[in-house]
Each structure stands twice: as C-alpha cells, then as structure tokens.
From TrEMBL:
Source species, domain of life: Bacteria
Organism listed in the record: Mesorhizobium atlanticum
This protein's UniProt keywords: Monooxygenase, Oxidoreductase
SUPFAM superfamilies to which the protein is assigned, alphabetical: FAD/NAD(P)-binding domain
Domain FAD-binding: 18-313
One MF term in the entry's GO annotations: FAD binding
Name under which the protein is recorded: FAD-dependent monooxygenase
Amino acid sequence: MSTTGNSEAPAAPPGRTEVEVAIVGAGLAGTVLAITLARAGRKVALIDPHRVHHDEFRAEKTRAEQMGLFEKLGLGSVFRSISTPMTDLHIFRFGQLFERKQTFEYAFSYAPLVNGMRAALPPEVLLTVGKVAEVSTGPDRQRLVLTDGSVIDARLLVVATGYSEAVRRAIGVERIEESKAHSLTMGFDLAISPQEFGLQSLTFYGRRIADRIAFLTIFRIGERLRANMFVYRTVADPWVRAFRENPQQMLLDLMPEIAERCGNFAVASEVEVRQVSLTTTQGHRRDGVVFIGDAFVTTCPAQGDGIHRVLTDVECLSSTHIPAWLATPGMVADKICAFYDDPIKIAADTRALRASIYAKRITTETGLEWRLRRLRNNTARQLMVFGRRFREAGKPAEPRAA
C-alpha cells in the first residue's frame, strides 16, 4: 500500500519507481535524512510500515548540543515547535541539592517528534507505506520489492530501521551484542502539575551501589510532569516488577529528600520500560547500502547521545558523502566506506559507546579500581559542596525589607 505522510507529500505510484536514494525506515534518522536530501534537490523514496509513527517510549530529553545539530540541518524551528525547553536544572547528589545549571535542555515524546518531522517532509519525497519483502544490492543499482508487489529502484539504499532486524537480515548484515541488556529506561507521569512542581527540571543521582540506579530526571513535556529513570537491571528483575506494581512507595523509600517537591511521587500513568543492549554491526561494508542510527550502533539512552549519533550520521551523509557518491558513476563499497571511516562519525559513535560502558561501571562495579574511582569522584563533589557553603557563609546577609 502507498500513501502520503502528510497532506503535501505524494504517494509513490504503483509499479516501479526510480529514485536516487531509497531510505527504509521513517523514524527520526530516516525522516530527517529524507528532508535534508530532498531540500538539496535529490529524488528520495522513504519507506515505512506505518503512515503515522506509533506511540513508542524512548528517553525523552536532549541537550543544547543536539539542538545545534537540528539548527545546522535547518530543522531547529520544527524541533522547537514539538519540544519543551528548560534552562534551569536542579541536580541532587548525596541526598541534597548539589548544583543548579543554567543551560538549555529540551523535552519531547518520541512519536510526536517523528510525526512532526514527517509533517515537514518536502512534497517531492515519495513516502511509501509498506513492508520490504525482497532486497537486492549491488555496485550500481539497488532494488526493493515491497509486499504489495511494487518495486523501488535506487542508486543508494539507506537502512534506518532502528532496532528492527528484517531488512538487515535480508541484506546479510549481523548485529553484534557488546553488552546484552545493558540498561533499562523507565518512564511515567507524575500526578502533579508543572506549576505545582515549580522547577523546570530536577535530576537525582542514586546513592547506593545496590540500587543500581544511574539517575532519575523529572521535567515538563507540555502540561505533563514526566519522569525518566535509568537503571542497570533487566525487565525480568524482581526489583523492576516490584517498581511497576508500586512505583510511589519505592520512590519514597529511595529518594525521600525530594518526595514533597514531586507531589510525594504519586504516579499518574503506567510505568513504561525499555530495555537496551549495546550493539555494533558486522558485515556492513558492502556495495550500494549504508546503515545509520540505531540500525548501525546502539548506545545507552542515559547519556543522551542517541539523537547526537543520529543527527551526526545525517549531517555527514547529506552534506558530504551522498553528494560525492552521486556525482560519480557506481556505488561500490569503497565509496560507502568513506562514511564509516569519517572521523566525525567515528568520534560520535565511540564517545557514546565509551560513555555508556563507563557510566554503568562507575555506578555498579564493586572491584577495587571502581571503588577508588567513586571515592575520588565523590570526594571532589563533596569538596565542591563544602567550598560553595564556605563562600556563601562569607557573604554579608541581605538586608531585610522594612
């Protein structure tokens, strides 16, 4: 079946369609790439099983650095229209207010983010709703056959299917697990309004190794007060089942210092969970096809690097590699490898993987090396708290109003 993603974009005609670039997967990576390529005058087909992206829980906050990448890609205004900005961030450590950061962060729900980007697709983009049944790749042309029998013929195939494995398997590319069930993200609404909460954003770091908690962050999405908690556990862990059954009581026990500020943690929604494994890709250096975003590598959402990786992939491809590839005949593996070997892409992926692994180890490892690292870090933080209190104690008291 073919249809449009918005009122402007035309449906791909039945039968056979020829394009320069076929993108499979209209999540954030695929949709943003389709927008940037189409704006540059490229003929693009975007294929996805769903016209409207379904509700999907993922980490729901990103930083100013990622906003800069949206701006660079010409999508800053679109992202701002579907996100909630924050500039005053309260950070709790050791059960007390540790730091106030004055910096931009942005909160969003993933499905509205993707659907908002789809609404920004230029009318030239052929958005085809359907599933890929067959894939043929080669040094010159790539051929997709959909389940309805329609065919899309392209010079380049981009796989942006996230965690889905069907197209990867059809091509013969393998996902390698670097850290199975690495972390778990839990998301839920709090039964308190943003106005009652009073703060823009609050982050609370776990205090005990046994809790296996990276941190809890509470923030506004529109008129909802939302919480994301990152833990190093599996879905089947009895602790996770107990949390889902009675999140309020467990949060009261874990974080009593901030309970009053958060409406005593009364929860107004089901607790959603998302398990993440750290993975890389093997066998991807081949003719005619390139893998991007989570279809290439996955990292822990606790560090906030997922959107950064995606947008870095899109920026590298749309500004440098795809224009160069299309400027000369053929689409051999040597061409494609220029993207995988791009130092900017390598740096983004490497940073995200290293941060994911380090964050879990510094939170959960009990060996001497990691105990000493925690002691060093916590001592430095305690000294920062002491220094701030000392400076504040030396300041003259503000005069009282008459």
